[in-house]
Every structure is written in C-alpha cells, then in structure tokens.
C-alpha cells in the first residue's frame, strides 16, 4: 500500500473544509494512516495562507465550501508563482461526485478525487493515486506534453 512508497510520518497535510466534523474526520483518518502533522482550516483563503507559510506536502480540499469553492482554490494554488505551492499534491473531496464535477476538479489541477462518504481503504488509495498523478504531471511538464488525469469510471481528462 502507500506506506511502501511514502513515509507518511514526514508528511505535512492541510485539510481545507468549512465543515468542522469533516475536517476532524479527515485528520483522524490521516493520523490512523501514520501522518503526524495535520493542519485544519475552514476556508480557501485560510488554506492559501497556510500554503504560503510553507512546508505543506498534501492538501485535502472540499469542493463545496461557503465563499470560494474548492475548484477555485485549486486553480489559484496551481497559478502560484511558487513551485512549492503550485506543485503541492491536492486531493479534492466531495459528496457531490458527478462526472462533471470530477472532470472540473481534474482540469483545475487536482491530483485525485475522494468521494464522501469514504472508507479508510478508499482514502488510502486516493492518497497513493494523488502522489502518482503528481509525479506523472511533473514528468509531463518536463517533457512539455499534456498529462492525463483519470476520472473514476470515465475517460482521462487532459490537464
């Protein structure tokens, strides 16, 4: 599983969700998977501020938040002039997982999409997928060719 490829204990993870219960649930699942450093914020703006502070390796962002939504958050993160921020691994989270929404998240730059409610095993798979997709996207950028983000049950989306 992921532990074979990633040292999760060293990860610094940011959870961006306007629902306190969901922030706490995601943080607890991360801790169960071995992540020791989890930061939680309740808005896209607070998420960007945490990213600017530095050191975040992975972001879980809800797609539906009051104010700015998760897709816009991802677009702004990807547009950052800082490679450390722009290339952070992002998993989009939503209970509203229509094909259109999943494709929109992928086109915005999300590395994976986690559907709520989720199991711990599905959570771990999406975490591993997000890091694999990030590597693929960075390699494509180096070759200056488009990367493709797999849509669950559908065709890949060019990103």
Summarize the structure in short:
With 159 residues, the protein is α/β, with parallel strands linked by helices. It has 6 helices and 7 strands; from the N terminus they run βαβαβααβαβαββ.
Tell me what the structure shows.
With about 160 residues, the chain is α/β, with parallel strands linked by helices. It has one domain (about 1-159): Response regulator (Rossmann fold, 3-Layer(aba) Sandwich). It contains 6 helices and 7 strands, in the order βαβαβααβαβαββ. The chain has helices spanning about 20-30, 45-55, 70-80, 85, 100-110, 120-145; strands at about 10-15, 35-40, 60, 90-95, 110-115, 150, 155-159. The strands form 2 sheets. A 5-stranded parallel beta sheet has the order 2-1-3-4-5, sandwiched between helices. A two-stranded antiparallel ribbon has the order 6-7. Strand 6 and strand 7 form a beta hairpin. Helix 2 runs parallel beside helix 3 (about 70-80). The chain is globular and about 30 Å long.
